[in-house]
Amino acid sequence: MIRALYTAATGMSAQETNIDVIANNLANVNTTSFKKSRADFQDLMYQYILDPGAPSSSSSNNPSGIQVGLGVKTAAVQKVFAQGDLTSTSNQLDVAIEGDGFFQVTLPDGSTAFTRSGAFQLDQNGQMVTSDGYIVAPGITIPNDALSVTIGQDGTVSVLQPGNTTPSSLGELTGVRFPNNAGLRAIGRNLYQETVSSGSPQAGRFSENGVGRLNQGFLESSNVSVVEQVVSMITAQRAYEASSKGISAADEMISSSINLKR
Q1: What are the CA-CA distances from residue 255 to residues 18, 252, 261 (Å)?
Q2: Residuewise pLDDT in 10s, the chain (262 residues)
């Protein structure tokens, strides 16, 4: 019965983590390019009261044995990088990636982060930056007299200036892919950093070699489905309640055993 108490407690702890993950997903349902997370679980070690295959007689073996599990643990909380819906904004500095890939962002300390959020703006120098003012690599500056900005599907940035009939190219946004997107470290602000698990970034042109194409005037929405998350929350809540019932049942059994002599 004591074993049941601790086993049920692991179930409550696991579902608490599950609810935390779901709550974060729902909180970011309107966050541009947000990728939902999913909690994965594993059963814990087993106590072998009778090993499977143990002799049951001189000529037979026990087919299944007696294996009592000791609970559950959270094995991983991974990001699911499924494509989010593209929403039209009609803003010429908004860019959505359709397919795999990330933009490169230079952080204040000089390191590089990666993002799928293409809600770009211009700073006081005319450079393309994120909402936090981080420079979008490779560092493209839009002239003050630019009449329009065009970002091609391959990442080419060009502007139309007064007195010119044809746009002039300013540079090219380069895409980055990873062998394992789920291994990236999420650091907030729609940014990710490379880790050993993600593998090294592989730079390439957008629309080529597996890197997604760009869509100017669009933003990628969160890939969170509210209905799916609410159903998952209800399931997690019921599982939590069931584990708590297991603790109550074990407690009542212990109480009954203590009261046998009364």
Answers
A1: 31, 5, 11
A2: 688 899 999 999 999 999 999 999 999 999 999 999 999 999 999 988 888 888 877 788 888 888 898 999 999 999 999 999 999 999 999 999 999 999 999 999 999 999 999 999 999 999 999 999 999 999 999 999 999 999 999 999 999 999 888 999 999 998 999 999 999 999 999 999 999 999 999 999 999 989 999 999 999 999 999 999 999 999 999 999 999 999 898 888 888 888 876 6
Backbone angles phi, psi at 103, to 5 degrees: -85, 155
Give the pairing of strands 168-172 and 66-69.
unpaired
Rounded to whole angstroms, the Cα distance separating 13 from 74 reads: 9
User: Cα(134)–Cα(190) distance, rounded to whole angstroms?
Assistant: 12
Q: How far apart are CA 43 and CA 97, in angstroms?
A: 38
Q: Which residues contact 157 (CB under 8 A, 6 or more apart)?
A: 128, 140, 149, 150, 151, 169, 170, 171, 172, 173
DSSP helix/strand/coil, 21 = helix
55 preceded by a cis bond (ω within 30 of 0)? no
Exposure string over 174-184, b if 16+ CB within 10 A, otherwise e? bbbbbeebebb
